[in-house]
Amino acid sequence: MLPKSFIFQGRHAIGLLILTSVLTPLALNYYVRLVTRNYRHSDIANVPAESIAIVFGAGVWEDGTPTPMLADRVQAGVDLYKAGRVDKLLMTGDNSSVDYNEVQAMQDYAEAQGVPTNNIILDYAGFSTYESCYRAKEIFGITQAVLVTQNFHLARAVYTCRQLGVEAIGLGTPDWGKFRQKGMIRYSFREFLAVLKALWEVRVTRPEPTFLGPFEGIKEKL
User: Fold this and answer.
1) pTM over the 0.70 mark
2) Are 85 and 49 in contact (CB under 8 A)?
3) Nearest C-alpha neighbor of 55 from the set 88, 30, 20, 16
4) DSSP-derived 3-state class of residue 97
């Protein structure tokens, strides 16, 4: 029979391990939010002028039209453009199959709002936040940009881009209180885990994106 002191120490070690496994992910998520806090905005008036805004994909319906989240992101990008805060919009999203094209839906929406086609750039291989940021720098030559996405996703997007060499400022669009609470709980939990993956990618592995391709530099005004 094991001594009581040994059993106590074992339980103590297990408890400490469980506590660490819970606190570490919380601390890492807090860290990403903390170090990006000065680069995230929710009001266009506070966003400094940049040459380009990067608008992240967020899904399309079966008929090819943007989901409400994606429409909000593109609308915010359009608002930045019309306010003179940016000169061009880079739409980055998933076009991994013929019948699924986020970026075309984003372009169509922006054009319908009056943004000229020659001021819209499409990245068809932005399959993830990491890949979108990586390709923004390596394929399109972007070194400074405004990132447009929902607030729950903004910290990770800004952190990832800045770690990959893009001096990013973020414009966050409303999420909690606008979209269904059940959906936001699911998105937020997924985002919690995605932050841990992002830290691993930018700090440890630095994988190349699914598709890299030739350089397609964008002429910047600023």
Assistant:
1) yes
2) yes
3) 88
4) strand
